[in-house]
Every structure is written in structure tokens, then in C-alpha cells.
Amino acid sequence: MTKNSEPSSELRSSDNLGSDQSNIPILEMKSIYRSFVKDRQQIPVLQNINLSIQRDEVICLVGESGCGKTTAGKLITGLLEPSSGEIHINGRSVTDYKGREKSLLRRQLQIVHQDPFASLNPAHTIGDILSFPLKRHNMTEGGAALKRRIWELLTMVDLTPPGDIVNKYPHQLSGGQRQRVSIARSLTVEPKLIVADEAVSMVDVSIRITLLKMLKRLQRDLGLTIIFITHDLALAKYFAWEGRIAVMYLGRIVEIGRTPDVIANPSHPYTRALLSAVPEADPELTRRKHALRLRSDEIPRLTDIPTGCSFHPRCPYFVRGTCDMVIPELMRPPGYEKEVACIPVQQGMMLQETME
Amino acid sequence: MSFDANHVVLSVRDLSASYLAPRGRVRALSKVSFDLHAGETLAIIGESGCGKSTLNLALMRQLPQNASIDSGSIIYTYRDKRQVDLLTLSKRQMRTYLWSECSMVFQGALNALNPVIRISDMVYDTAAAHGLGRSEARKRAMKLFEQVRLDPERVFHSYPHELSGGMRQRVLLALSLILRPQIVIMDEPTTAVDILTQRSILDVLKLLREELNFSVMFISHDLAVAAEIADTVATMYAGEIVEIGSVDDVFYRPHHAYTYSLLNAAPRLSVGEQELTSIPGSPPDLIEPPSGCKFHPRCAFVQEVCRTITPPMLEYEGRQKAACYETERVLQAQMVKNV
Questions:
Q1: Among A200, A297, A302, A304, which would you mutate to test the B interface (most chain B Cβ atoms within 10 Å of its Cβ)?
Q2: What does the pLDDT look like over B177-206, one tens digit per residue?
Q3: Rounded Cα gap, residues A39 and A156, in angstroms
Q4: How near does any CA of chain B get to the CA of A204, in Å?
Q5: Whole-angstrom Cα distance, residue B67 to residue B65?
Q6: What is the ipTM of this complex?
Q7: Contacts of A294 (CB under 8 A, 6+ apart)
Q8: How far is B56 from chain A (nearest CA, A)?
Q9: Which of B300, B223, B314 is nearest to B262 (CA)?
Q10: Which residues contact A321 (CB under 8 A, 6 or more apart)?
């Protein structure tokens, strides 16, 4: 760690790590596998994830618990390493970043956790929580600049007046305010990409929208790339309306495309099942809605993932001899604007007709 | 509507309850009144801290030691039309009442089931405590497990950890009905579960309700779940019911500014791009609640009168009631949204 001797202005100017060409994706995941070992058993949590994300993009990873969305977020921010496969940031593999470059890289990738009660140290004031990363990474010079920057960050996340907040402890704030502090903390190191892992799930419905609006505003103003992880499809739809949604099932991406397209015309049977199962906050509509009946309600265990397409034991459109034999690749079927990992869809079958 | 409007099972009048905190008395419930009819599903919606859970616990007289019911009555009507005020029952009488007349499905099915005994023993213990024979209990349990789409033989002999989250939640639902209560109280039964699990629980619940015709009190912060399964919806704010009415009336024609604000803060899947607004601020301190209408500091429709005088509960068309001075403007705003 030699950066303490460097003037911070020079650090700032090299923040982009030499690749400002906007056509290079900020993040690429190439054939990512990740497994954990539990009771001497390999548990594959992510399998063959290929994902490319452009600068300034908003993308939602959605799926049920155990689908691997949180693990994906941790891999992206460098909190975990893939078992195999490569992660490229700004066109270079993360393993190529060394020394000072590596620490700059880590600064560019930040994560906001789900639970603001657990992610903020209860013994530190909000001012402390924000000043630690600012000092550690020489983001500001001198006490006055530090204070100014903390004020600025608190204002950015609408915690105003900042003077009322800086000396408070986390327990003196509401859940929504705490989550704003978490977001402000992630912004201290001037990141380029933020992973928001269920970042509004713990706050009340009535205030979720302001938090999401604030995140969207920050995304636009600061040119951030946001990867928003959630199990709530309505939230994903609202937040990533101008971006993309990737639907995950048992460690794989099964469908990815522009948000309005995925929500209005779901293609993968799993996406269809999810969307048809969600109740709507509209009595007549929700009564009319027909949930796709699955062949089984049970989610397979990760230690015992079905052969072929892992959704086949539950899928109402299952084709014997194909779906249980061949693992479908995520690809764009002819005539589609999105990628779908379902062989019947890729072969152009009209799924409605195969329903019993 | 499927319920019998002439047959009130539970009639709550002016129920107030409070907690004793170091700083003072937390008025968690003030003057709550409503009727629950036979076969009706009543959903209580509201933010955390609005008193939903306190209401649930109060109805079962299960409030913690630092809480007390300060006034009001809870009149329960037995199947033989006998009536009783639950607040006058002894502890022993209450123990018989719970489960055989009114049962509870908690959220977090793992914590609600005893991890060291089999489901079968839970069935037998419950039956024994309420004077039901073992073979009859077993017969009923098997029937109910089948109705909630579980494999009866397997589940009956399982320990809770051998079942998935969704299966456990359905076991709880089945167990809650084993003594054929008239009322089932549910506290966020689908909050911690996945979408497809939630779907199967909701479907099973609807089916059971049709077959067994019990009443449900349902607490949820999820408006979509309320929209789907409720006959009647009550909005709670700061310990008060501020609006109550049929599910269609409350969702399409909210008469209270708070209900309106809550409905317009929730993103929906079915509509395209949405203009949504959060409710500013946070729920009030119930030790020193605001004067007048308790919602006024956060309300977009606030007028001078709202700050000083508590609005009365007014009755509207159908069976809708709301306590809001600005009903006219709220309705107009909603009409614009409905178009």
C-alpha cells in the first residue's frame, strides 16, 4: 500500500484505470461458476453465468431464494471469487489488476446490503461511518474538506439538514434513514458500479419509492451503473423500467432482456410462472389472474439439481427427451429481442399449445 | 361477497390498548371498532408500527406483560349463538377458547413449530388439550393435510426440519383448523416465502375457506395479497382504524387520504411505467401522537382543521367508513388515477 504517499488529486485522475471508451462494458462475467462446499459436498450456486453490463446501465437480478443472485452480487464486487470463469471490469480481467490499481478497482465497485440494522456499526456516529472510508482512501484533504464532503454526501441522499444527522448513532434513525446512510457510505469512494442487494426490502412499502427514486437520481447524476438484486418483481419492474431484467433460477440466468419486454411478454416458462403467480394490488385484476400450474411445487435442492433444464420437473411445457437431457444455453431465439434459456422456446414452439 | 352479513362472529368495540415504556405510555390501539362476519376475510393493512400486530394479540389476549387493554369489549358469538365478552374470560376459559374457537397462524413457520417433536405429536398434544380423541384427531389431520396439498403420511411422521418452508407454512395452516375454529388469525403468513410458495399458500387458503367457511383476520403490509383474498379491508394508522370497507371500495374508491397515499406508493406489475409517490416522514410517536388527525403531518391533503380536531368516522355508500375531512379531494385524485 503505497498510496498514502501519493497526492489525492493524482489518484482521482487515474480513477478510470485507463479505459474510458464507452463501448467497452463496465462489467463482463464470462462462464462464471461458483460452488460452496458443505458437508464435503459440492453445492453449485452459480453455473455458467455470462453477463455483460454497459456503463450507466440499470439491471435487475430477480429470482427466488437460493437462485444465486446474492452470490452473483458478491462476485461482482469482489467479495467472493469465482470457482472458474473470468470477471472483466472495463475490458480487463480482475486478476490482472495488481497493487494500487487493484485498490482503485475495489473502490469503483461498491455494495449496499439489505439490512441497514446490521450493516452500520451501532457504536459509531453517522459522521464517523462516512469519514472512515473518506480518510482511508484519501478522498479529501484536511478537516474542512472532510466535513464539507460528509455534508455533501448526506445532502445527496436527502438526509437534511446534515447537521442534525452527523452526530447521531444508527439506532436514532429510522430504517429508511439508515439505508440512506448505507448508500451515502457506498458513495464516499466515488464508485462507478453499485450492487444494491435487496436494498429496500427491509423498509416499509410507504417509503420504498422515495429510496428508489433517490437511487435512480444518483444513478443519472453520477453516471452510476446499478445492479439491483431483488425477489420482488413489481419493484424490479419499477426500478429498471429503462434497463434490463435478468431472471435467475437455480444458479443460472434463464431469461434476460429489456424490462418492459420481460414483464409484458415473459418467454421462459419459469418467468411466466413467476409473473402469473404474483398477486396484484388491484382486486378485479388479481381475481381474474390465472397462475400457471406447475407440475411440482417443490424447488429442487442445489445438491440434487435435475438433469437437463433444471426447471423441467416443474415445467408445464416440458418436452420429454429434450428438456430432461440437454442443458439449454442462454441465447436469443429467432425473432426475439431477448435471450432465453429454453429449448422449446428456441425451437419456436408456441408454448400455449403444449399446455394440458 | 361470500360471507353472511347478518351473522357477526366477532364484534370489537372501542378497543384501546397500551404498552408501558420507560418514556411513557405507548397508545398502540385507540378505540378500534369493527365486526367480523361468518365466512368473511378481513385484511388489516398499514405500515409497521401502526398497531396491526397489537390488535391481533389483543384479540387473543396474548399481549406481553408490559401491555394492558385499557377499555372496550370483544364480543364473540359461539356457534350456538351464545355471546361472551372475551375480556371477562378467565385464563382457563381463554385457553379453551384459543384454537377451538379462534386459532392463529404466525409468520415464520419454522419458529412456530416445535423442532424436537414430530408433527403427529403436535396433532395429538393439541387434541388432548382440547378433549379430542386421538383417532379422530389423526383422521382430521390427514384430511386437512390432503386439503393443503401435502402428502399426509409423510408429513404426519416428519419433524419440522424435514419439511420445506412452504410445506411448514401449510402444516401450520392445517393445524390451525384441526379443532374447526370459527376464526383464524393470520399474521403476515406469506411474508417470508417465495413467490411460487406464496401462490400455493394463497390457493390452498382460498380452497379451505370455501370448504370450511371460517372467518379470517389477516394482517399484511402486502397490499396485493390483501387485494386478492380479502372481502373487507381496514386501513390502520397510528393505532386507529381510519378506513374500512369492501375490498373493491377501499382499493378503487379510497375515502381516506392515508389509504390513498398507501395505495399509490406500491408499484404494480400489470401497468406500464408508473408515477408513484412515497408518503413523506415516518409513522408518529405513539407516546405523544400529533393532535387532530394523526396523519396530518404527512398528509398531502392537509387543511387547517386536520391539525386540531380529530375527524369523525363517517359512513358512506355500501359499508364503507372513513375518518377524513378531505374525502372529496381524495376521491377526485383517485378518479384521475383510475382513468
A1: A297
A2: 999 999 999 988 777 678 888 898 899 999
A3: 46
A4: 6
A5: 5
A6: 0.87
A7: A273, A314, A315, A316, B196
A8: 19
A9: B223
A10: none
